[in-house]
Amino acid sequence: MKITQIPVPHFSKRTDPGIINAIVIHATANRSSSETLNWFENKASGVSSHYVIDKNGDIIQCVSDTDKAWHAGDSDLWGVPNANEFSIGIELVNLNNDKDEYTPEQMASLIELCTELCSTYNIPLNRVVGHQDISPGRKTDPGKQFPWKEFLIALGGHLA
After folding, report:
1. pLDDT of residue 101
2. Which of 69, 84, 108, 117 has the greatest CB tally within 10 Å of its CB?
3. How far apart are CA 38 and CA 89, in angstroms?
4. Domain extent for 130
């Protein structure tokens, strides 16, 4: 798996860098990885993620796994607040609307990356979630068009 490193300034140290036990999937709400990276590099944005996956399947790492990316905001996963503290954030280039579908190349890269992350950090499938799952009512990504069933079946098959 080829991962391009493009560091961004918005991150901090995790309170406990050994606690990585979830993956949060996002939609960028824009058209390209360059738009996403420009936003991550903008001092006014105050946001980042660990990874961005472009429409063509290219994977870009923006923040080290051991650092805390600022992707989840006000969040709660299974009763534990501040998902940034213990999760890996993955942004998929997508407008987060009913017309912009996730590409086969994106999904293949997402499955490959999540397989690696789940194996490395012993993350179970029930902790691979969408932004809407940890910030209900505030966020809607990765959206209704995200193929959760197919994605989790494929990911589970790779982890078996």
Report:
1. 95
2. 69
3. 17
4. 3-159
Which tokens is 17 given? 């860098």
| Reported pTM | 0.97
d(CA 141, CA 104): 18
Say which of 85, 91, 105, 150 is annotated catalytic: 91
91 belongs to the catalytic site: yes
Is pLDDT at 98 greater than 90 in this prediction? no
| Predicted pLDDT of residue 17 | 80
Domain containing residue 143: CATH number: 3.40.80.10
The domain total for the chain is 1
